[in-house]
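Hello,

Our lab assistant flagged a job as stuck in the queue for most of the afternoon. It eventually completed. Since we weren't sure the result was trustworthy after the delay, we are filing this so someone can double-check. Below is the sequence as submitted and the structure that was eventually returned. Let us know if re-running is recommended.
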Amino acid sequence: MADWVFGINPVREALGGRRRRPLELFLARDGGGRLRELHDAAAAAGVPVRLRGAADLEKLTGNARHQGAALRLEPFTYLDLHDLLAVCRASDSPGFLLALDGVTDPHNLGALVRSAAAAGCQGVILPRDNSCPVTGVVDRAAAGALDHIPLCQVVNLARSLDELKDGGFWIYGLAGEGAEDLFRCDLRGPLVLVAGSEGSGLRPNVRRHCDLLLSIPMAGGVGSLNVSVAAGIALFEVLRQRRLSS
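-- returned structure --
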């Protein structure tokens, strides 16, 4: 079963086919210059192009925000944990991973993947259950980042964190109450940042498998942040510290 990507910018990124082979491009008839550019890019890549009406595109994608472009791709493939560890070991920089505990909103997942890729993270770990899978909505929210960072799907997140500890990683959970100040923690070594679900945060069992819980100091009356915002701040704090020490 193939996957779909829709929207001009996500389709343009996906036509590069870095991780998934593009199979077929559907474009709205009588499209403007940006759609003609996609047509030419697909033709250059040997991807068949089909012209359809806007209503047909909406039926194909299940979404009205297709911008006149929908691309059918090979199904998304996840790395297993051992392959992800091999990616980290092959890197010149210390291991840097993001693990998500129960993120179910596709827009949040896409934003998290994009932030992780932009911060130089080497992979994102997702539990197989109680987690949003990669969908067209995720791909659109990630805006092409799925082609630049591997995703790993695991059966048991807590057990996988123990395996990562055995591989030399420190496990830092993002939490609020009773946690250490993110900006005072040394984040230059191999590490995994763990972010919890949109509503309840980290599950108790996952918390117990973290070496340290970190919080983001905040001023004013706001008590918490959206998971994609909080994780983005932590990801770029890792990047900041590592650049200062290089």
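-- support follow-up --
The delay was a queue issue, not a problem with the job. The result is valid. The mean pLDDT is 90. The chain has nine helices and eleven strands.
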